[in-house]
Amino acid sequence: MSFQAQIRDVEDKDPEFVDSEFEMSRRDFKEIAATLHAESGIYIAESKTALVYSRLAKRLRALGLASFRDYCNLIAGEDGREERQRMIAALTTNVTAFFREPHHFEHLKHNVAPQLIAAAQRGERVRLWSSACSSGEEPYSIALTLLSLAPNLANFDVKILATDIDPNVVAVGERGLYSERALAGAPANLRERWFRSARGADGETLSAADELRRLVVFRQLNLIGPWPMKGLFHAIFCRNVVIYFDQPTQAKLWGRFASALAPGGVLYIGHSERLSGPAVAAFRSEGVTTYRLSEGGRR
Ligand SMILES: C[S@@+](CC[C@H](N)C(=O)[O-])C[C@H]1O[C@@H](n2cnc3c(N)ncnc32)[C@H](O)[C@@H]1O
User: 290-293 and 261-269: which strand pairing?
Assistant: First the structure.
């Protein structure tokens, strides 16, 4: 090997990972990061190499692969489609909770839900969207907020679309089984009214009642891919996901949400997120990380 080639070879390897169970070069990391970005919009910095290594080492073991180079070759190919999905699922953060960032649910309850419930009772169609729903705590919290005002809501044309890129968490939401601990964040009266005791694989669990489940429709959806939904939404929750995206992806997404909202619709975003790009002008702030689409603000 020439001197130049040797230098490149050493530079290419992150010293931390040369002697690990699987060798991971800088080139491997870059290819994984580029695939993740292309498929999901998620940007992952090189400082996260240890995290990427530990999450994907499990995949390499499961697949019986000898190195990250083999893994990169697998995900690069046409038949690596399924593994690319698994890789995204392994690298996403699914942390969530019932009534997380409770001021959004207060705003929904007092400033949005009364008008939506009245519209539904007049026979109109009402749609809300939890656009990175993780394991379902967020869409069920939206549904519980609406049910707290109108317990018979499931009889009307009201739906909360709950989507996430990760099919595993979508399946958890669809199952609607939660531990007492997970449900501790929900108001006691709503928990008691809309969840039933059930026996799950992990012991005692609480199961979402039918009237609660009927309000929520779970689907797998990649936010940076096409959106097949036709109608407009009256409220969209997009919380704690765009922080993982780069700026251009974020700005584009805000514009797409503006287009997906009905006039006067509300967008709730995560506590460390900010609107950016041309879509900012379409919204007015209505509280902490809460934005209402101005009349005529659709893009
Ligand atoms: C930290 S959780 C936030 C869950 C919930 N919105 C909340 O605030 O509690 C982020 C979720 O975004 C999802 N996600 C990441 N990239 C996505 C994408 N491109 N499209 C849809 N969902 C995505 C992840 O799978 C994960 O479940």
Answer: antiparallel
238 CA closest ligand 1 atom index: 6
Q: In what order do the strands lie in the sheet with 158-164?
A: 216-220, 158-164, 126-130, 233-238, 261-269, 290-293, 283-285
Relative to the CA of 270, which ligand 1 atom is closest? 8
pLDDT per position as a tens digit, 101-116 = 999 999 999 999 999 9
- Is residue 85 within 6 Å of ligand 1 at its C-beta? no
Q: Identify the helix (H) or strand (E) that includes residue 43.
A: none
Q: Which of 129, 141, 165 to mutate to test the pocket of ligand 1 (most atoms within 8 A of CB)?
A: 165
Active-site residues, by number, are 55, 164
- Domain annotation for the chain: domains and CATH numbers: 3-91 (1.10.155.10), 102-293 (3.40.50.150)
- Sequence-separated (6 or more) residues with CB below 8 Å from residue 211: 147, 151, 153, 154, 194
Span between the terminal Cα atoms of the chain, in Å: 57
Check: CB of residue 254 under 8 Å from CB of residue 299: no
Read off the pTM. Answer: 0.92
Q: Is 95 in the pocket of ligand 1 (CB under 6 A)?
A: yes
Convert the pLDDT of each residue in 202-213 to its tens digit: 667 999 999 999
**What is the helix, strand, coil percentage profile of the chain, to 5?**
50, 20, 30
Do residues 147 and 139 touch, judged by C-beta distance below 8 A?
A: no
CB neighbour class for 276 (10 Å; exposed up to 12, middle 13-18, buried from 19): middle
